[in-house]
């Protein structure tokens, strides 16, 4: 009998194996989801390393994150990025000519401004002698912008770098079909009327069918929402738990908004419209109302809905990053140190959204810290099911041993330290801009609550992930 069970288990898909393993260990956190107070800890050692430059965040801002199709819908991505850069200049008072380099992350690129960092920088009044480039790494694009800035400063190439990110989901490129594009290009190359007429005879009505942007993984052809639904099922995360977590995110975000904790926001004047001053996606509901929604991806039995998923968002963020020496020489009081970071990647089908699980233990080991040393956790919330599945994976010795090659689990973050000012589910998720928001939330929480270390982590399309340690700057 045991031989049959062993054989059967080996032949199960990865998802089915996880479901068997975790179905007997449901996440019992319903009562904990409402906890919000931050935990203050005593001062610990600094993570400064000999002969290595200290890199600091001097300031970081973002324009309000808005639901796509609202106040930003008639703008272009560089308009939003320009707003973030202008807000950063205004708040920090940094002279534009001091900035050595500008890097922005984005995911869905506007073809007219493919290097959106450069266009936004020129629009914000930076010198045309200041280089700028754009990076893309799905939902961790601005994370990549920040760590690229760290590398430029640590290597001595720069002293002052602005890193940020932008996304405008209200207006995404919609292309002609490939056949139509080919015909148009060939027509453009045709030199005679007969050549053009010959090409036109090949035209068919179906050439006019547009190509809409795919929100699916290229390698698996599966949408991220579908992956999140399967992941939630694999880790036995119930619909109720997902809704409770989403409600927690919105409730904590509303509380933080009302109490003025979202201080990284700078007002943004929309041309021809009012000035936007706050995020508009924070909408605490009730579990009863959320339970009425139908599954969004796997129908009719899925558990991922519009209420427990992050929404399409427009927004931009920007951070002023310097060497500590340069910041102090200019008279600045930095916000925080940017310390160790790590990028990870894994199977984009069954482990698409498990980046935080893989990145967290690695970055902690790199920094010589444990989960108990962390005073504030800021994780990207793509879906409630994704967050809760990561919690379960992080808290499982079995998963650590069988999938991560580790002897023991790293442990899941305590909720009283986790995303206590809300997260992407409530604040919004402009793909290219979220990383900077996470780091600034971490830095501001450390400053407010007296903690020393924060851990920022995020998953991304392609099965990738990022984690970083942020250390409070001494008061």
From TrEMBL:
<dbReference type="GO" id="GO:0005743">
    <property type="term" value="C:mitochondrial inner membrane"/>
</dbReference>
<feature type="domain" description="Thiolase N-terminal">
    <location>
        <begin position="55"/>
        <end position="325"/>
    </location>
</feature>
<dbReference type="GO" id="GO:0071222">
    <property type="term" value="P:cellular response to lipopolysaccharide"/>
</dbReference>
<comment type="function">
    <text>Mitochondrial trifunctional enzyme catalyzes the last three of the four reactions of the mitochondrial beta-oxidation pathway. The mitochondrial beta-oxidation pathway is the major energy-producing process in tissues and is performed through four consecutive reactions breaking down fatty acids into acetyl-CoA. Among the enzymes involved in this pathway, the trifunctional enzyme exhibits specificity for long-chain fatty acids.</text>
</comment>
<dbReference type="GO" id="GO:0106222">
    <property type="term" value="F:lncRNA binding"/>
</dbReference>
<dbReference type="InterPro" id="IPR020616">
    <property type="entry name" value="Thiolase_N"/>
</dbReference>
<keyword id="KW-0472">Membrane</keyword>
<dbReference type="GO" id="GO:0005654">
    <property type="term" value="C:nucleoplasm"/>
</dbReference>
<dbReference type="InterPro" id="IPR016039">
    <property type="entry name" value="Thiolase-like"/>
</dbReference>
<dbReference type="Pfam" id="PF02803">
    <property type="entry name" value="Thiolase_C"/>
</dbReference>
<dbReference type="InterPro" id="IPR020613">
    <property type="entry name" value="Thiolase_CS"/>
</dbReference>
<keyword id="KW-0808">Transferase</keyword>
<dbReference type="InterPro" id="IPR002155">
    <property type="entry name" value="Thiolase"/>
</dbReference>
<dbReference type="GO" id="GO:0005741">
    <property type="term" value="C:mitochondrial outer membrane"/>
</dbReference>
<dbReference type="GO" id="GO:0042645">
    <property type="term" value="C:mitochondrial nucleoid"/>
</dbReference>
<keyword id="KW-0999">Mitochondrion inner membrane</keyword>
<comment type="subunit">
    <text>Heterotetramer of 2 alpha/HADHA and 2 beta/HADHB subunits; forms the mitochondrial trifunctional enzyme. Also purified as higher order heterooligomers including a 4 alpha/HADHA and 4 beta/HADHB heterooligomer which physiological significance remains unclear. The mitochondrial trifunctional enzyme interacts with MTLN. Interacts with RSAD2/viperin.</text>
</comment>
<dbReference type="InterPro" id="IPR020615">
    <property type="entry name" value="Thiolase_acyl_enz_int_AS"/>
</dbReference>
<keyword id="KW-0276">Fatty acid metabolism</keyword>
<protein>
    <recommendedName>
        <fullName>Trifunctional enzyme subunit beta, mitochondrial</fullName>
        <ecNumber>2.3.1.155</ecNumber>
        <ecNumber>2.3.1.16</ecNumber>
    </recommendedName>
</protein>
<keyword id="KW-0496">Mitochondrion</keyword>
<dbReference type="GO" id="GO:0006635">
    <property type="term" value="P:fatty acid beta-oxidation"/>
</dbReference>
<keyword id="KW-0012">Acyltransferase</keyword>
<dbReference type="GO" id="GO:0016507">
    <property type="term" value="C:mitochondrial fatty acid beta-oxidation multienzyme complex"/>
</dbReference>
<keyword id="KW-1000">Mitochondrion outer membrane</keyword>
<dbReference type="InterPro" id="IPR020610">
    <property type="entry name" value="Thiolase_AS"/>
</dbReference>
<dbReference type="GO" id="GO:0005783">
    <property type="term" value="C:endoplasmic reticulum"/>
</dbReference>
<dbReference type="GO" id="GO:0010467">
    <property type="term" value="P:gene expression"/>
</dbReference>
<dbReference type="InterPro" id="IPR020617">
    <property type="entry name" value="Thiolase_C"/>
</dbReference>
<keyword id="KW-0256">Endoplasmic reticulum</keyword>
<feature type="domain" description="Thiolase C-terminal">
    <location>
        <begin position="332"/>
        <end position="471"/>
    </location>
</feature>
<dbReference type="Pfam" id="PF00108">
    <property type="entry name" value="Thiolase_N"/>
</dbReference>
<keyword id="KW-0443">Lipid metabolism</keyword>
<comment type="similarity">
    <text>Belongs to the thiolase-like superfamily. Thiolase family.</text>
</comment>
<dbReference type="GO" id="GO:0003985">
    <property type="term" value="F:acetyl-CoA C-acetyltransferase activity"/>
</dbReference>
<keyword id="KW-0007">Acetylation</keyword>
<keyword id="KW-0809">Transit peptide</keyword>
<dbReference type="GO" id="GO:0050633">
    <property type="term" value="F:acetyl-CoA C-myristoyltransferase activity"/>
</dbReference>
<comment type="pathway">
    <text>Lipid metabolism; fatty acid beta-oxidation.</text>
</comment>
